[in-house]
Records
---
Amino acid sequence: MKLKKLLISAGIFAIFAMALVGCGNTKPAEDNQKEIKIGATAGPHAEVVEAVAKEAKKQGINVKVVEFTDYITPDKALASGDIDLDSYQHLPFLQNFNKQNNSDLVPITNTILMRMGIYSDKVHDIKDIPKGGIVAIPNDPTNGGRGLMLLQKAGVIKLKDGVGFKATASDIAENPKNLQFKELEAAQLPRSLADVDAAVITMNYVMSAGLDVNKQGIFLEAKDEPLAVMVLAARNKDKDNATYKKIAEIFHSAAVKQFIADKYKGTIVPAE
């Protein structure tokens, strides 16, 4: 009888001990939160993600910024699962990557705006570009066409129907002011402002040259221009991940918006 009681007591103790072990392995969700790796190109994109990571930490989300020096590797790393998210590109670029690589990456939020603009040291309004004036544009096919499209939206020229962002100077159908177009390497455009009436410049070179958007910018791309809106991308299977959604929200937080305003002073602004 005593042996039976001892066996029962031992069994109860074993069960109780197992329960204690089980309780000991239960941790708060944030303690088990894995490190979220976000890829970004060095410079503004990585800097903004660092600001997001700082805010995410306050919410118990551990974000690591993985910097890249080119525009292809981040999406490849995301597609392969080496990183969890990336933030450095616009939607057309992402869509082209998917097409070229048979991948399934999707945007989960807009992040920042990097708008191409028309700049001048000689006039303060797009309408004041003089007849016969010289306008400098990028000489690479992608940004050259984008620049011509911007000049069309500004009402300076009219392009042939359907040319879109593939436009070249030969596609100009109407040029009422008989403007001359000077094609230059994108990096040289800020320096050309002393010699031309206006220049079409991408935001990265506006920033590196220290141009003042408010003083020298006379016409900017719209805030909903696809090539100006940068996105946070994820694998399609992860688009509804709750943690990733929280990170997407942090990009639009007051703290991150303030960081962007203080750091970039209008060259880069938050996307909506």
---
Amino acid sequence: MSLGKASVRDADVAASTVLVRVDFNVPLEDGRVADDMRIRAALPTLELLRERRAATILVSHLGRPEGTDSALSMRPVGERLAELTGAPVTQAPAVAGGEVDALAAELGEGDLMLLENSRFDPGETENDPDLARRLAAPVDLFVNDAFGASHRAHATTVGVAELLPSYAGLLLESEVEHLTAVAERPRRPLTVVLGGAKVSDKIGVIDRFLEIADEILIGGAMCFCFFRAQGIPTGDSLVEEEGVPEAERALHRAAAADCRLELPVDLVLGRDFNAATERRDAEGIEVSDGWMGLDVGPRTAEAYAKSVGAAGTVLWNGPMGAFELEPFAAGTRTLAEAVADAPGTTVVGGGDSVAALRQFGLDDRVDWLSTGGGASLELLEGKPLPGVEALQDA
């Protein structure tokens, strides 16, 4: 599938200075990068630019700082990037401005420079034209390779793209291609597995895939909105109250759709949300007061795994339970193993699902691991992404 946007593959970048929006929003621990998946995902685009003798300036956000915050500086990210590329990375002291322009002027062919956290400048999230102009000043063209940030109309995704020749990076192209193919050209049957806590985050995906998928399997805390909508007791389980009406409407739509909407048939319960809490298996789905559902039960996990194994295409977004707590990890582990073993095409999105696969050592056994959270959900819903729309057409 063609993205319909100009590709960095076709850009004449030799002896040019290129600004690349990357998604280096990575976890830090003790001043070091704890998970470099998103940095590694950007390497093909960076290697292409270096091979074609471009000087490359990278810009990304990191976390949600309120003003400048040294704990969210990009410096550890630049250090990890240098280790991965084997090339020095100049760390800029700011997002844009005179000092940055001076450093950019000194870059040679193939050199790399990383700007400071874009959200240190309030103009980033406001898509401030002045910040966009300052970002564009020292460069010749722009590449967006930050799929995970492309659902935001920010200065580094949209503003600067409107001022320069603008191209899609290799990662962004691949993300759109793989996620779009799930909805538009799936191998049948298409099984969609949705988990996590909030129905409101996934209702757009549920709505769209009730028209497309053969079955949707629901797990995680979001299942309690569906149970509440059916009048089933949920005890002390996490329930997104505003998601209950959405779940009720989805149940009505599913009743008239060709797609099967499946809910858990058994649960694993705990007294509290911690690994040391009292735990018990529930034969059914009713949760009494004083207990909370923290994982799907073994019968549900087995049934979901069987569906995944028979699917031509599997889309998984959201864990089945509190997998970060070992007593409640079994449902997500069973599903993750089924996805890893599935003979069909497997696409996994959402930070928690990817984290689960990595925790269980299965992340190298799926066809596509998306780096996007909200961006992947919006694309799957069929929404346009501002950061993609702003790029010049092919």
---
Amino acid sequence: MPMTTPIPFNVFSSELLPDETVHWTGRPNAAVIFHKEDWAVVPFSMLWGGFAIFWFLGASGIANFWTNRPDKTFQWFGVVWGTPFVLVGQYMIWGRFVYN
């Protein structure tokens, strides 16, 4: 990665109000992917996403986890109700890395 020289502080002085100051210039470290708060977010997102998919498959009738009946009828209610939860779970697992 090429080294870049930081922008001098006085470049922005004409844009600042009298009581404002520049505290930092440059770029954040692009190599940092995980942050401190991710230690709680990652396990929660995996639990949310995993359970949402498990519930979606069972409630929609695609997979029958709770009984051994051969009746595996497709349930639209399970699809309509479960889809937002699955989408939120997938965003928490993958989307926040792609979106940022």
---
Amino acid sequence: MSQNTDFIPFARPLLGPEEEEAAVRVMRSGWMTTGAEALAFEREFAAFVGSPRALAVNSATSGLHLALEALGVGPGDTVITSPYTFTSSAAVARHLGAELRFCDVAPGSYNMDPRALGEALGSAKNCKAVILPHIGGLPARTAEIKALADRYGCALVEDAAHAFPSATGDGYAGTLGRVGVYSFYATKTITTGEGGMVVTADEELAARMSRMRMHGIDREVWDRYTSKKAAWAYQVTEAGFKYNLPDILAAIGRVQLRRAADFLAMRRAIAARYDAAFAGVPGFVLPPRGEGHAWHLYALRLDEEALGVGRDEFIERMAALGVGCSVHFIPLHIMPYYAERYGLKPEDFPEAYAMYRASVSLPIWQGMDEARTEKVVRAALAAAAPSSGTGTARSAGAADRP
């Protein structure tokens, strides 16, 4: 295959003059760290998703850590999550001295299986929280999972890093549990480069997380320097963290938030074009779909037997054709740390492992024009050829329902 220098990256943010002006405004204000812009971003984000409280943080990982700490997770406790997620979803439990319990994804799905969760909850010791990732932007079966968590006295923490804006009939993904955490990392559906947001309707949890994200100080730190009154005194009431979001990033986030609906429409259009191109192609399995899909990822599954080409070779062929792809995710139970600590084998979570072995994430990002989309389509069809066997692509829509 010939090389193509017009390379399409797997992900790319869409930033324009408004974001530039917002950043410059903060630079010229003389105030660079957390302040009025971050507070405004919190109010606007809370209003967008319909949550009483929103707290801006420097990453979704920080937000998950704050959530578990505020819930009292610690040594002797268990936290349950899916192995089909980024390491942050699990690592935050270990940061607090708690142990992990994984439960498999549903067949044909990237999201947690309520049946597997029920089994895990029934045998877990001192389960304090369930961390529920919404993979790829498709809301998980949240109502079922929340009912199970409630039955066993566990707090539901939604890892909504992929799921913005994911609106369902019950509300936005991320607002349906005790705490929800969003990511504004560079590849996400809106971005601040690095950053995140925590939402909750629980005022006690909000107060705890607000205090702990800024060193455990008992008041907002930024107004010590902007108040006209002598306001230098403060108290450190806890050994907190440094998890605040700077104003320069919050200002960019406020602009991105106003563009969120347009960004979602762009991603949906790309996903629809891929669906149209790949439906009926032997060896291609379309991504799961359902209500509120934000299309953070377009994860195509490959039937190696039908295609005659494996997933890894397919990605190499795509790169040679000028298209960057990725894999979401390498399951945590096959990562050395978790595998060794908990004595896990790939076959322990067969659904997650099978999805990983077959899946490839294609480029899907706002600002990706029709010409680029068509190039990805052509490359994917070429990378899959020659195809062996017969069959048609199918959608796994029944696997995931909010």
